[in-house]
Amino acid sequence: MDKIIIEDLKIFAHHGVFEHENINGQYFFLNAALYVETEKAGMRDDLSCSVDYGKVCELLGKVMTDNVFKLIETAAQTAAEAILREYSLVKAVDIEVRKPDAPIEMDFRSVSVKIHRGWHRAVIALGSNMGDSRGYIEKAVEQIVASPQIRNVRCSELIVTKPYGYTAQDDFLNGAVYCETMLSPHGLLEFMQSVENAADRKREIHWGPRTLDLDLIFYDQEIIADADLIVPHPDMHNRTFVLEPVVQLVPYYRHPILGMTVTQLLERLKKK
Fold first, then answer.
1. DSSP letters spanning the chain
2. Which of 69, 136, 197, 249 is deepest in the core (most CB within 10 A)?
3. Does the active-site annotation cover 99?
């Protein structure tokens, strides 16, 4: 993808762990790479088809001067999020915050933090079979929509389904959400767990009754398997109550391991 590059944007600001840094301030230098498709702008010679780098510089200046951060990590994160929220044409961004006058009692040229952030597709399954199930799910969707790191949220219809695995419990209300997020897979998982906790989710019986259950089904085309997270969800292709809502939202989303679309997976499961 094409890039718009901003190099060594010099900004006087008041960031640092030490009090004298917050009081006296110092110069910071920012580098940014904006991932933008510029073909249309280049062919039409039309700025409205691209991103005004002058305005981006103003935004970066505002982020750096309107806030006081202890860490340049936070400055970089806040700058990246501000650009991604403000400019819909920017798919991803590299941000480097450089601090040449860091309080280090040694000879050095500069210290910096460089990050990459961008928008990612995610599919989340929703379920509940305790209390006001519809209310729990609707509240969860509201929290997802309200997150500043998430955009373009679409929710499926909610369906009533029989319990899966542990069957001695009430029927479930199930649905799914498609969204774009700038959170990492584990960052999104942490956010989802906070939404579950807000609904007083208890994890007492495996596959047991719950006020709210959020499962990360897909994250782009990534394959993740560690102690905390498995993506794609390892059992989603055996669950009609997951596939039916997902098919409503993204019928052609392809499973990165099985190589089949969710529509094909649902058709195969129904034939069984």
1. --EEEEEEEEEEE---SSHHHHHH-EEEEEEEEEE---HHHHHHT-GGGS--HHHHHHHHHHHHHS---S-HHHHHHHHHHHHHHH-TT--EEEEEEEETT---SS--S-EEEEEEEE-EEEEEEEEE-SSSHHHHHHHHHHHHHH-TTEEEEEEPPPEEE---SS-SSPPEEEEEEEEEESS-HHHHHHHHHHHHHHTT----STT---S-EEEEEEETT--EESSS-EES-TTGGG-HHHHHHHHHH-TTPBPTTT--BHHHHHHHHHH-
2. 136
3. yes
